[in-house]
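FW: tagging you since you asked about this chain on Friday. Here's the raw sequence from the shared folder, copied in full. Didn't touch anything.
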Amino acid sequence: MNKDLILLGHGSGGKLSHQLLDDLIIPTLSSIPQAGQNDAAVLDHGGVRLAFTTDSYVVEPIFFPGGNIGSLAVNGTVNDLAMMGARPLFLSAGLIIEEGFSRIELGKILATMRQAADSAGVRIVTGDTKVVPRGKADRIFINTSGVGAIEHGLTITGAGAKVGDKVIVNGTIGDHGIAVLAKREGLELETDIQSDCAALNGLVAEILAEGEAIHVLRDPTRGGVATTLKEIALQSAVTITLTETALPLQGAVKGVCAILGLDPLYVANEGKLLAFVAPEAAERTLQRMRRHPLGKEAAIIGEVTAAGAGRLQLETAVGGVRAVEMLAGEQLPRIC
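HL: got it, structure written out here
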């Protein structure tokens, strides 16, 4: 393999992505240490803390059950701000459109972006549009950047996990990735699987009521739950132990994964978060989440069991324990 070439796997959010970031992008641009690599940057300006993030969306197909590239672009950036404990305020929208793209479809995408922004309580205040020749892009790509205010004294970071913390997810995993895959490949399923694409800032506001008991928030998008938890284990230098039988999973998603040989732990989500919560507050936090529309199926799926290792492991349904690593390649390209 020519190591000079960029591969699809470098955009997976998994092991190759981290290698590209650690070997080239971060050392060249900023030298941010691993412990500081979160979903958004926290900026302190005269005592006012702001969160700032940016993300680009290249999903294929651009319309999928439960959303489209526009709702994904808004909700994804809102969620990255929320995972830092910020209240999302303002977004930018950058469009790269291929010549020949439908004005009708563009109008639908823009309308959905506006609806998603209004629903999340944010404003799209600036942007940019570029058009490239036919064949030089794939219909439409969208970049969104966002700014949010951190209006409390908490520090929410991937380096904040502590021994004893319970790991909570707000619902079933793998829904987005399988919904997009089924649409892309024309899979005929007995049950329609919908993307979980949603803005999580309202749910996060409920969780933050537990105060200093909330140590980490992260949305498991590219690379899924497994890759995200492995990142947190490395940032926090802890061992995280998952319980396989506790993982919430739709039957249809489980079935598709079994047929196609996919591990749902690595399938992308766009409306899920992982919360690391002090054990004494875990049950209260779980109940707060279950009272929210986006947390009805919340579950405790694991805990931080040791310090110093940077490991993720899974207690299997048959009673064994296996190591879980980051996604090694590109399981489902163009998923977000």
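FW: The two ends are 26 Å apart (CA to CA).
HL: agreed, and The mean pLDDT is 94.
FW: great, closing this out.
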